[in-house]
């Protein structure tokens, strides 16, 4: 049937994102105050109808995406053509939508306004903005705990947010669209880096872009929700691409800029070091790999901080997000449960379990880096799996954090292996955890759990044709290398 063809999937996905965008005008993460009247709150009946439309559209998008992936994995005729065109069609309806699935964009705008108004973004939250300040409408729309939370982001992102506020005068609608332009730039970076890494590995662009760019989790939360994780990932992966082609210094510069968006990008420096060490060999190569990427990225961090004029307060705010409990964090949930069982107050026990989780994550990352250094896995696969492990064991986890690792893994042959299939199922499930309004209702977890179970059963019953992943051909210095068994 046509609907199950590649062409049918393209049209179904576009209709799905259009339904999400239209539903978002009634049920999206609308601002508290919006003088233009475009995103004003609607009546309860219209809000419910918008939410239902958005969920139906999301389901259509996920189904079309999954079917498209099956066609790509099986080498179906017509599936590999026009992948970028498909991405454009699926993305276009979200460009003019209001903020979706998160209120974080209002924090970004408010923090940019705080810099312009002379407030310390690393010492206070958006609530310090008064009615007469730039970004006051955005500050009023910041959700929950984030109202009084200092910025956990680096100075490079704050400079971008500041520029958006300056150009738009802090008006909430133009400022949101300014942030969406940055998100679209991040998507373009991701596409460029994923295609480049895939090409260096002798892979076609279709499958890697399916997992790394057409992914509903990315479209919904990077384009729709404008999360800066997209920009961090795009810069980080671009740096890894350049480093894999032998341009270690420039690659480390880009990763340093990514760290100045969000700090988890620093994991990439370790794997760039692995590439450097393997390229040069011997003790000299190991020393160079351990030192050069970190020194370059550190210099970028210092220069960016001084140039931005926001101070080094970002060093002390990296842990502020961990104080906010999220149900997707396994270590936070286990720690909270143990603390309640022990009966002496949950927070101390929870803190210990969270720290143990991070210790385990570091151990996993180091083990993967060692395997990459020994030539047993592709360093890019090692980086992707390391970021997935970091997310799984972090004290705070949001659905879109999974993209840190998914986009990296997507750029390798692993996209069609077991790891790629499991990450695809997780991506398809996690889009349901958050409602279009940005809230996390109980039924969202139920929907996500149901999709996860169905997806894993499907993968078990109908695995895709597999290609070698571990022990394949990692690229070091821009050329193919056979790995040891």
Uncertain runs are: 468-485
The percent range for strand residues is under 5%
| Secondary-structure element pattern, one letter each | HHHHHHHHHHHHHHHHHHHEE
Helix content: 55-70%
Number of helices: 19
Structural category: mainly alpha
Number of strands: 2
Q: What global shape is seen?
A: globular
Mean pLDDT: 90
Q: Which strand order spans the largest sheet, edge to edge or round the barrel?
A: 1-2
Radius of gyration: 22 Å
- End-to-end span in angstroms? 44 Å
Instruction: State the major sheet.
Output: 2 strands, antiparallel
Brief rundown of the structure:
The protein is built from 19 helices and two strands.
Report on this model:
- By secondary structure, the protein is an all-alpha fold.
- The chain has 19 helices and two strands.
- The protein has a two-stranded antiparallel ribbon.
- A hairpin with a 2-residue loop joins strand 1 and strand 2 (479-480).
- Helix 3 runs parallel beside helix 9, helix 7 runs antiparallel to helix 8 (205-212) and helix 18 runs antiparallel to helix 19 (442-461).
- The model is unreliable at 468-485 (pLDDT under 50).
List keywords for this structure.
single chain; 485 residues; mainly alpha; two-stranded antiparallel ribbon; 19 helices; 64% helix; globular; disordered C terminus
């Amino acid at each position: 049937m046509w609907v199950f063809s590649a062409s049918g999937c393209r049209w179904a996905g576009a209709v799905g994102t259009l339904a999400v965008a239209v539903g978002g005008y009634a049920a999206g993460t609308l601002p508290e105050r919006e003088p233009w009247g475009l995103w004003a709150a609607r009546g309860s009946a219209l809000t419910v109808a918008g939410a239902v439309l958005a969920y139906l559209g999301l389901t259509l998008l996920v189904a079309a995406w999954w079917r498209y992936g099956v066609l790509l994995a099986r080498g179906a005729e017509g599936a590999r053509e026009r992948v970028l065109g498909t991405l454009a069609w699926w993305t276009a309806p979200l460009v003019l939508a209001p903020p979706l699935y998160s209120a974080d964009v209002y924090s970004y705008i408010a923090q940019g306004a705080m810099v312009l108004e002379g407030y310390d973004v690393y010492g206070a939250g958006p609530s310090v903005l008064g009615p007469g300040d730039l970004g006051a409408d955005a500050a009023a729309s910041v959700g929950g705990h984030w109202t009084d939370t200092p910025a956990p982001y680096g100075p490079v992102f704050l400079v971008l947010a500041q520029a958006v506020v300056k150009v738009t005068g802090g008006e909430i609608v133009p400022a949101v669209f300014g942030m969406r332009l940055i998100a679209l730039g991040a998507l373009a970076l991701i596409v460029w880096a994923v295609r480049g890494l895939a090409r260096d590995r002798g892979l076609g662009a279709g499958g890697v872009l399916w997992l790394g760019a057409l992914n509903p989790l990315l479209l919904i939360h990077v384009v729709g929700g404008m999360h800066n994780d997209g920009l961090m990932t795009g810069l980080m992966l671009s740096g890894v691409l350049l480093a894999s082609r032998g341009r270690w210094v420039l690659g480390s510069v880009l990763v340093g800029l990514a760290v100045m968006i969000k700090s988890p990008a620093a994991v990439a420096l370790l794997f760039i070091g692995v590439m450097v060490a393997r390229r040069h060999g011997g003790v000299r190569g190991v020393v160079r790999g351990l030192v050069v990427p970190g020194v370059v990225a550190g210099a970028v961090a210092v220069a960016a901080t001084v140039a931005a004029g926001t101070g080094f307060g970002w060093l002390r705010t990296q842990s502020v997000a961990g104080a906010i409990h999220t149900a997707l964090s396994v270590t936070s949930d286990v720690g909270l449960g143990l603390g309640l069982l022990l009966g002496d107050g949950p927070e101390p026990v929870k803190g210990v379990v969270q720290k143990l989780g991070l210790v385990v994550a570091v151990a996993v990352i180091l083990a993967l880096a060692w395997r990459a250094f020994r030539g047993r896995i592709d360093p890019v696969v090692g980086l992707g799996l390391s970021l997935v492990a970091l997310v799984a064991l972090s004290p705070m986890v949001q659905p879109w954090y999974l993209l840190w690792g998914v986009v990296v893994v997507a750029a390798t042959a692993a996209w069609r292996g077991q790891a790629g299939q499991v990450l695809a199922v997780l991506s398809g499930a996690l889009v349901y955890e958050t409602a279009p309004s940005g809230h996390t209702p109980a039924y969202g977890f139920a929907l996500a759990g149901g999709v996860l179970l169905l997806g894993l059963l499907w993968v078990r019953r109908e695995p895709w044709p597999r290609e070698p992943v571990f022990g394949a051909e990692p690229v070091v210095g821009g050329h193919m290398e056979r790995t040891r068994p």
